[in-house]
Amino acid sequence: MGVRLGKTADKSVIVVEGRFDFQQHEAFRACLDEALERGGGLGLEVDLSWVDYLESSALGMLLVMRDRAKALGIDSIALLGCRGFVRQILVVASFDKFFTLR
């Protein structure tokens, strides 16, 4: 359970497992910092496939990530594995307007 960073040649993938809440803030920020250090030309994705709970602080973390990524020229961020409760929260919060939901 927790947050980890996966990398491929053309993108960074932040994988979140379990509860995505304020307890994950530091780990998420560390992964995001590392992903953004790789450069603005690479893609960025967040894999939420294994998230079973999502709270408002997680939404805030995603918005901060979007702002920081945009400042580096990353315009497209995909949220992967959005299903059930997680997808419902993201759609109700209009995150489908800010991110690609898959």
TrEMBL record:
Pfam families found in the cross-reference section: STAS
Annotated STAS domain residues: 13-102
Full protein name: STAS domain-containing protein
